């Protein structure tokens, strides 16, 4: 950037940091106002090669399995509960079944 250009006035910046990857996006307008520039900068930390190895080490099948398990778990639990036999209310204690103190006096 030349010292006499004034791009900072019409410049918008966005940055994101992911594990092992920094992303910078800069949107600016030319000094004449006739064009726009978008610059996307990716910086892998420590390197793109190491970032690629980390992605290769991730097991996509294990990720997919875990995602499906989390998605289906509430439905499977609801089906399990629906398949349980209906619960019966607890039997009420009858007055005849409980001996009273007057019965012992006889």
Please, could you describe this protein's structure?
With about 110 residues, this protein is α+β, with helices and mostly antiparallel strands. It has a domain at about 10-75. Helices cover about 35% and strands about 25% of the residues. It has a three-stranded antiparallel β-sheet with strand order 1-2-3. Mean pLDDT is about 75; it is low at about 1-10.
Write the layout of secondary structure elements.
Blueprint lengths: L10 E8 L2 E9 L6 E9 L3 H10 L2 H24 L17 H4 L2
Antiparallel strand pairs: 1-2, 2-3
Total E-strand runs:
3
Radius of gyration: 35 Å
β-strand percent reads 15-25%
Question: Count of helical segments?
Answer: 3
Structural class: alpha+beta
Shape by Cα distribution:
elongated
Distance between the first and last residues' Cα: 111 Å
Question: What about the largest sheet?
Answer: 3 strands, antiparallel
* SSE series: EEEHHH
Mean pLDDT: 75
Share of helix, binned: 25-40%
Q: Any low-confidence stretches, pLDDT <50, length ≥5?
A: 1-8
Spatially, the strands of the biggest sheet line up as 1-2-3
């Amino acid at each position: 950037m030349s010292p006499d250009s004034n791009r900072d006035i019409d410049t918008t910046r966005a940055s994101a940091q992911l594990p092992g990857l920094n992303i910078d996006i800069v949107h600016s307008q030319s000094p004449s106002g006739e064009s726009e520039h978008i610059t996307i900068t990716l910086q892998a930390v420590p390197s793109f090669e190491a970032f690629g190895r980390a992605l290769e080490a991730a097991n996509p099948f294990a990720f997919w399995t875990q995602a499906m398990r989390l998605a289906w778990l509430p439905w499977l639990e609801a089906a399990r509960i629906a398949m349980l036999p209906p619960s019966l209310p607890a039997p009420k204690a009858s007055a005849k079944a409980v001996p009273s103190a007057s019965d012992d006096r006889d």
